[in-house]
Hints:
With 81 residues, this protein is mainly alpha-helical. It has helices at 3-11, 16-29, 33-39, 50-63. The longest helix has 14 residues, at 16-29. The chain is elongated and about 70 Å long. The termini are far apart.
Amino acid sequence: MDPHVGADIVFGSLPQDEREKLVQKMMADSSPYPAARVYGIQDIIHPCETRDYLIKILGIIRDSKTQGMSRHLLAGWPTKF
Length: 81
């Protein structure tokens, strides 16, 4: 949504200078990068690139030695209760 339209919806009619400050704040707060940093996201892709990205990643996993699964070693299995 256009930040100017969003500011009108959220804040109603405001003086132009106050509205512009809020629009700038909304634009700064809408970046995906802070959320990606918090959640440890490795890649941010455009929605139209999703199919190609998934095909590439699944191909990498399929061709790997473990095919995306760990070896599930029982080294940490408790031996005494």
